[in-house]
Amino acid sequence: MVLPDGGAPYGSPRARTWRAFRRNPLGTVSVAMLALLVLVAVFAPLIADYPSGYGTEVLSGPSAQHWFGTDNLGRDIFAQVVWGTRTSMVVGLGAAGLAIVLGVAVGVSGAYFKRLDTPLGMLVDLMLSLPVLPLMILVAALAGPSVSTLVVVIAAFSWPEVARVVRSQAMPVVTLSYVDAAHVIGGSNRWVLFRHVLPAVSPVITVSVVLTASRAVLSEAGLSFLGLGDPSSWSWGAILHNAQRSGALSSSWWTAFFPSLAILLLVVAATLCALAYNDARNPRTRQDDHR
């Protein structure tokens, strides 16, 4: 029996992976949670008004009027978390995208071009040995607080991990017979890379995007909490920074609980999504439907 999705009795590897992923409840819940956060970021103006100015209810607890309570200036924390989702997601996805581009380029180049493997490997090892947090703080402080600065700074210290993982996956691929055959028939290096090597490492890239984005959100929250975020925009880290600066952390639990919960949900959802995807790709752990 030949199925239309790949010609194999039980579908293509991609179709089998997708079926296994859908059967994993952790995978579906994590994807739904990530999709919800993306929707909140996109439709933030429709969900809550932009938090600005001052309010009359200062440090008011969660209520029907203010679901997440208010801060020391009477601003609604629910609105801050909603609008902070947009900034945090932009920084996370932007930094992850830039880090993936740099990491994949370095990792694939090191695996494919043997003469570049040693110097690129030394560069990756050097970057991984650096104290990341102090350097991120230093660079962000010198460059000035802005969303674009956070994206570049976080990506600059995130790509080495991506490069190491991609290189380890690309090394066995470049030695396979069909890659050698592509060279024999006159295929250019660019054609071989885009036709054979990159598709082979694309599952690793998919997982790296999710995990790098979640780590970027954590890094943004940490830098913003230290006062190095963009002062003109809300983010989850900026909410925590304002709560800490005003002294509300010790007296008003809601000022820190809800932005911290948002960060936790994103990181947990991204981690579970990556784990479920890896399990779905692994033939030893998935159970294909052979009916």
From TrEMBL:
A GO biological process this protein is involved in? transmembrane transport
For this protein, the record's PROSITE patterns field holds: ABC_TM1 (PS50928)
Instruction: Using the record's annotation, list all stretches that form the ABC transmembrane type-1 domain.
Output: 85-274
The stretch of residues making up the signal peptide is none
Domain of life from the UniProt record? Bacteria
Mind listing the UniProt keywords for this protein, alphabetically? Cell membrane, Membrane, Transmembrane, Transmembrane helix, Transport
What is the membrane topology noted in the UniProt record heading this document? Multi-pass membrane protein
Enumerate the SUPFAM superfamilies for this protein: MetI-like
- Do the record's keywords include Membrane? yes
Q: Does the keyword Transmembrane helix apply?
A: yes
Entry's Gene Ontology cellular component terms: plasma membrane
| CDD domains the record matches | TM_PBP2
User: Where would you find this protein in the cell?
Assistant: Cell membrane
Record InterPro entries: BP-dependent_transpt_permease, MetI-like, MetI-like_sf, OppC_N
Question: Which residues span the membrane?
Answer: 26-48, 90-113, 133-159, 197-218, 256-277
Q: Which family does it belong to?
A: Belongs to the binding-protein-dependent transport system permease family.
Protein name (Swiss-Prot/TrEMBL): ABC transporter permease
